[in-house]
Structure formats: C-alpha cells, structure tokens
Write a structure and sequence with these properties.
Strand order of the largest sheet: 1-6-2-3-4-5
Order of helices and strands: HHHEEEEEHEHHHHHHHHHHHEEH
Helix content: 55-70%
CATH architecture of the largest domain: Up-down Bundle
Distance between the termini: 48 Å
Number of helices: 16
Structural class: alpha+beta
Length: 528
C-alpha cells in the first residue's frame, strides 16, 4: 500500500533538517516533536549539518548514511530520502524526496509545509548532490510522543473543573434569563398594547427588572470565577515554563535565541485567554443558539425552518475562515517572535554594534522583519474583516427574509404581530452568537499555534539533576584533563586528545585566539 507524504512545516529557518526527520518518522508511523528532534540531530544557531542528520536518524531507530551522486542516480535511490539543496543561490536547505517519476520529482518542502513537484532540470539547479538515505532497523518502533492539544487544555482545566462547571451553569442561567426579553415583547404587543392592560404591563415590567438584577448578579459571579481560574492558569503556565527552562541543559540555550525563549511567555498568555475567555464564551454562544432555535420552533415551526437554511452558509464561512487563519496566524506569530528575538539580541549587543559601526545593517534587518510582519498582520485583519462582514451579511439578509415571510403569515392571521416581533428578537439572539463563534476561529488558531510552540519546549527532557559536590579541603586538588575529546553536537571537535594539569593553589592563565576553546574549557570544568 502506497503511503502519502507527511507534510511538516519548519518552525524557523534553522529547523528544516529537524522538520525533514519529523516527516520521515511520520511516514513510518512515529510522531516526535520537532523540538526533541532538534536535540537528536544537534541543531544549533547555524542549523543542522549532514552528520547531525545521520546521528539524529540513528537515534530515532534508522540505519542512515550520507551519500553524494549525480542527478541520473535519483531514480535508483530508496525512498523516502533527504536531499540537501541551495535555494536562491545562498540558502542551504533540506527537502524530503517522496516520489520519482519519469519526468518529475515530488518533494516535501518543510519551508512551505507542503508537497512540491520539480522537473529533473529544475531540481538539478538547486541540488548539491548530497543525499541522506535511511531505512528502519530493529530498534525502530512506532510510537506517538506528541500529546493532543485538547488533552493539554483539559489538563489545565481539570484541577478547576468544579469552578468551570459552576461558571458554565451560571452562563446557561444567564442565557435563559436573557431570552425572556422575547417573551416580554410578545406579551406587550399582543396583550398590553391591544387591550390597554396597565396592570399586566406593570407586572411584566417589574418581573423583567427582577430578572435583570438576577441576571447581572449571576454574570458578575461568573466573571469572578473565570478571573480566578485565569490567574491560576497564568501562574501554572508562565512559572511552570520558567522553572522548566532552568532545568534544561546548557546546549538548549546555546541553540535558542533569548527573544525566541521570551516569546513563549506571550504564547502562554494566548493559551490562557482562549481557555479562560473564548472557550467559556463559545459554550455560552452554543447554548444561546440552541435555546433560541428551541423557542423559534415553539412559536412557529415554518419560520424556524427558514432559519435552518442559514446554518450551511455560516458553516461555509467558518470553514473558509479556518482555512485562511491557519496559514496566516502561524506566520504572524512566528514573524512576531522573530522580530522580538532580533530586537532583544540587538539591544543586548548594542555596545558591539556601536563599536563596529554597523547600526545601518541592524536597522535594515529590523526594517525588513517589521515590514514582513506588517504584511502578515494586514492579511490577518483582512481575514477578520471577511469573517465579520460575511456573518453580518448573512445575519441581515436572513432577518429581512424572515420578516418578509413572517409579515405574510401575520396578514393571513397565522401568527400574531407579537409572535413575529418575538421571533425578530430571537433572530438577534441567534445570529449574534453565531457571528461571534465564527470570529473566535482566529483566537482558536492563535491558541493552538501558541500551545504547539510553548509545549514543544515544555516537552524537552530536563537535565539530569545531580547532587552538588560539597568542596572540602580534603577534596581540593589539581584539575586534570586526560585525553579529552569534545565537540558541540556534530560540529568539528574543539578538543582532541587534550591533556592538561592545572595545579592547586597556583594561578594558571589560559590564553589563545578567539574560538580556540577557552570558554569551552571553563564550561567543562563546571560541567555545564
């Protein structure tokens, strides 16, 4: 049975190698977070080299090797395979070759997160001739190390589910009380105004005032409950993220920029905003829609059936909005994080920037990143305008149609004017929440993307904690290096067969050119 290519989009410019490995793993039935694969293949600030890719595949349970060949060898290679390419004559990149046909090559490009087709001639122009071939070995096992986002959300809510349930019950009561307005309008129109019944008018109005006060009290209590839950979620996510960061090994911080790490705090806030505000409001809106429809059918089922016709149109708008937001919102979040990272790094290095007189270079980089972000924000706002305008158009269009048809039924005395006005009030209760549900899609996508970005860090394995050695006088002695070999990930070795003795109670100076290993030597002594 032929398998379909597994499309994985890289998180940033350095993740193409890790995304390719995630695609290969997914093709064979294993799902591993990209952040974890970055550790397997030793991705650093310069990306991933071929040796790191091979080592990552071996750690994932594959036999792998790097080879070099000509374009005419492509049809004979085992698939899938990873190819090293150069885009725009300068950007080194990896793609996964999934299919080779007579006149075209099908690849998964992690930069785009989708399948692309090349002619042999076009592929030859970008291919460096390097391939990484692999096959599962006896240590490979199918597993899913990814946790569904909805399970993570549930884990955040579960400790406070009783409070959330109370808030939802309060929201349901709040909704039912709000629907009493349609009943009030109907009785005033059909009985009070027609018969001049002042006693009934006073009774209904006092009843509505009592309902209004009760409704406001319930709404306030619900808001307080939601606020308390939101603060706990903020504390759990943000402080939990910070504590987890401090437990990660030093190599994580060597491969991640400070701005990228800080941007995850904003992601935590977006997750809380969704769970705390949008999710509860979404449930309330669904309840309003259901109760509104139920009341519509109790008034006059023929008009209610007309309102059913609008649902497929709303679903179509939601589907299209979801499709547009998935692409744009992720790009906007990633570009925002990249800009924030650039600003943090440049401000931290402002002394160096001024000393070398490269302000223009950094200004240009900031301008370029900010311009890209503005374009993406514009696209996001346009998507929001499309959703809101479409929802508003459907709402007004079907309101006119319903009043148009309903007026005929009033003329024919099938329903009363009060029932038609009550129906009109219910339309507002129905269309408003539905439009809000469509608009919530953007917040939902933001929360899903934010959760993906935040929890990819939270899922990384912590550094093994060892009891700190208490240095006593009898333990203090010479520091000895004996045939030490050390490299950063899969890069060139910093030390090879390095031996050295640093004598106790003597001052030893370590000198050398930049990049010769002085800092590394100090880090090895501190075991970081």
């Amino acid at each position: 049975m032929k398998k379909s290519p597994v499309c994985i989009k890289q998180h940033d410019i350095r993740d193409c190698g890790a995304a390719c490995l995630a695609s290969i793993a997914g093709y064979y039935g294993t799902h591993i977070p990209i952040a974890k694969i970055r550790q397997f293949c030793h991705t650093d600030t310069r990306g991933t080299n071929v040796l790191g890719m091979v080592q990552g595949l071996q750690q994932m349970g594959f036999n792998a090797k790097g080879v070099k060949g000509a374009i005419d060898a492509i049809p004979q290679i085992p698939l899938p395979a990873i190819a090293h390419v150069v885009l725009k004559e300068q950007l080194q990149h990896y793609v996964v070759i999934y299919q080779v046909e007579k006149d075209k090559i099908t690849v998964m490009d992690p930069g785009l997160g989708k399948v692309e087709k090349y002619t042999f001639e076009a592929f030859q122009k970008i291919w460096t001739g390097v391939l990484i071939l692999m096959e599962p070995n006896e240590y490979f096992e199918q597993k899913n190390e990814k946790i569904a986002v909805y399970k993570r959300f549930w884990n955040l809510i579960r400790p406070h589910r009783s409070v959330i349930v109370q808030a939802l019950v309060g929201a349901a009561v709040y909704t039912l009380l709000g629907l009493s307005t349609s009943f009030y309008i109907e009785k005033i129109t059909d009985y009070v105004l027609v018969d001049g019944n002042v006693r009934l008018l006073n009774l209904l109005s006092i009843g509505m005032l009592v309902i209004l006060i009760f409704q406001l009290l319930i709404g306030t209590l619900k808001s307080v409950m939601v606020l308390q839950t939101g603060q706990w979620i903020d504390k759990y996510l943000i402080l939990g993220y910070y504590k987890h960061l401090l437990s990660l090994p030093q190599r994580f911080f060597d491969t991640m920029k400070v701005g990228e790490i800080i941007s995850r705090v904003n992601d935590a806030v977006k997750i809380r905003a969704f769970i705390n505000d949008v999710a509860i409001q979404a449930v309330v809106n669904v309840l309003i829609v259901v109760f509104s429809f139920a009341l519509m059918f109790t008034y006059f089922w023929k008009l209610a059936l007309i309102m059913l016709l609008v649902i497929p149109f709303y679903l179509g708008v939601y589907w299209l909005s979801n499709k547009l937001n998935k692409k744009v919102e992720r790009r906007m979040m990633e570009e925002g994080a990249e800009l924030e990272s650039h600003l943090v790094e440049s401000l931290n290095s402002v002394k160096t920037i001024k000393q070398f007189g490269i302000e223009t270079y950094f200004n240009s980089g900031t301008d370029n990143r900010f311009s890209h972000l503005l374009k993406t924000i514009y696209a996001s706002v346009m998507n929001g305008l499309f959703s809101n305008t479409s929802g508003e158009l459907l709402s007004r269009l079907f309101t006119i149609i319903l009043l148009w048809v309903g007026s005929y039924y009033v003329i024919e005395r099938t329903i009363t004017p009060g029932e038609l006005l009550s129906f009109y009030a219910l339309i507002g209760y129905f269309t408003g929440p539905v439009t809000q549900l469509i608009g919530m899609n953007k917040t939902l996508q933001n929360a899903l993307i934010a959760a993906d970005r935040l929890f990819e860090i939270m899922d990384l394995e912590r550094e093994e904690s060892e009891e700190k050695l208490q240095l006593t006088s009898d333990l203090v002695g010479d520091i000895v290096f004996d045939n030490v070999r050390f490299s950063y990930g899969s890069r060139v070795e910093v030390f090879r067969n390095f031996s050295c003795r640093i004598q106790q109670s003597k001052m030893t100076a370590v000198i050398g050119e930049s990049g010769s290993g002085k800092t590394t030597l100090g880090a090895l002594m501190q075991q970081v």
